[in-house]
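Thread title: Can someone regenerate the structure for this chain?

I was given the following input by a collaborator and told the matching structure tokens would be attached. They weren't. Posting the sequence so someone can regenerate them.
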Amino acid sequence: GQRPAASPLAAPPPLFPPAPDSFGVQLSGHAYAGPEQFVQVMRSQGTADHGRARLAVAMRLPSSSCLEAARSFAVCPGWGPAAKAGAMQDACRAKLLQHPELLAILRATAGRPLVYARRGDAFW
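Best answer:
Regenerated them for you:
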């Protein structure tokens, strides 16, 4: 005979919360909703607040709200533009490697300019 179709309830839960504009990323054994969440958690690395910051910020969506949450935690010495850019580079690289479908989309843009603009974000 035929096997019965698997029940949708029997499927394992998704690793990350579903969001149309977000693909989760894992770095250093921890899950993050996306690169922005990783960057905001890393700003407290090495401080007494780091564990609490990870719990409060790592899975927060939308990403714009994670900055607000991260501002309540201590910032590590040496956190500046270079550290922030390095953390974002690590997170974006991990995201693309963990989600080949996104990497394929990015590669398909070859030769075309990519533009990022968000109100109030002069850094990126």
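The beta strands are 25-27, 30-32.
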